[in-house]
Amino acid sequence: MFTLLEKALPDNLHYMNDQTEFKNKPTVSGITLTGFSVTKHYKIWFAISGTLVITSIVLLSTWKLVPGIDFRGGTLSELEFVNPVDTGQIKNELTLGKFGNVTVQPLTDRRIIIKTAPIDEAQLENFRKTLQEKFGAYTEARFESIGPSIGRELAKKAYWQILLVLLGIVLYVTYAFRKIGKQMKQGLISGWVLGAAALVALFHDLIIPAGFFAILGKFHGVEIDSLFITALLTILGFSVHDTIVVFDRIREYMHKYPYKSIQTIIDYSVVSTMARSINTSSTLVFVLVAMFLFGGETISNFVLALLVGVIAGTYSSVFIASPIVYLWCKRKARV
Which of 71, 241, 310, 315 has the fewest CB atoms within 10 Å around its CB? Predict the structure, then answer.
């Protein structure tokens, strides 16, 4: 296969956009290189991502994310009544009872989740008494109470978790590819360049799910909790895994074909790993869709965040990180 590639790829010692490099190429995992170039059409990929990222930033600035009780403090009660209940009536009664901002989420016609602002023991007793008198007997399947100060502390820790994970990933990518600049392409690529490209892709993968949940919070009252932070951290790990696979293939082909242009090498590296990325992501997406449809209300928001993040992460690994590396090399070659 590599012999065929050497014949198919021209001996181009210059850094240039030679379109003839993509003609009559072999297939990899059933994908043909002919007519497809990630680097050639980078403006299209950046325009799509830029639109989504800017829209997400605007949404987060205006509507913001709706914090759950994990971050703002409050109580959560999961109750199962003997008789069917109306969530609207329950919310009205609790609002009249001055229990603060009350959210009632139906699970079934008898099972509901009620979220309130922080309340003391006397208010909690009155809360339970009101429900029993107005709507009949019920059993309490779950009860959680978090104070406002603890909620603020958890929010602060969540921010630090994300920042530390991003920093750790950038340092790891930089260290893993630390020798690439000394050995290949006259130093056009360095470990820091790959680390920076990975960081941009990861920011893309974080901001899009966050913007999506800002929309859900505005129109459907969806709140973010510690599971949402867990989903974001999982997205980071999944996304950087795909990105590293592409970067490693770039390093492999730079060593194999040091006389080829960096554009050719990056395009071939992306296409040769694209089938793997799509297959892996598709399998995960199928599982997440099944979990979202049949997994229950408790994990639905967590699964939805993962679903949006996995799609964004697969896109950024192929269409964002690699073109950034190409543009850096192109700029440095002209200096």
Answer: 241
pLDDT, one tens digit per residue, over 92-105 is 888 888 787 788 88
Domains and CATH numbers, the chain: 2-67+151-334 (1.20.1640.10), 74-146 (3.30.70.3400)
Q: Are 234 and 169 in contact (CB under 8 A)?
A: no
How confident is the model over 244-259, as pLDDT tens digits?
A: 999 999 988 888 888 8
The model scores a pTM over 0.85? no
pLDDT tens, position by position, 184-218: 555 677 889 999 999 999 999 999 999 999 999 99
Cβ(99)–Cβ(129) under 8 Å?
no
Residue 320 zone, left/alpha/beta (φ > 0; ψ -120 to 50; rest): alpha
Q: Which residues have C-beta within 8 Å of that of residue 43, sequence separation ≥ 6? A: none
Q: How far is CA 278 from CA 38, 48, 133, 188, in A?
A: 15, 19, 55, 29
Sign of CA dihedral 239, 242, 248, 251: negative
What is the pLDDT at residue 144?
A: 87
Instruction: Give φ, ψ of 106 to 5 degrees.
Output: -80, 140
Give the three-state DSSP class for 124.
helix
Distance CA 144, CA 69 (A): 9
What value, to the nearest 5°, has the Cα angle with vertex 155 and ends 154 and 159?
115
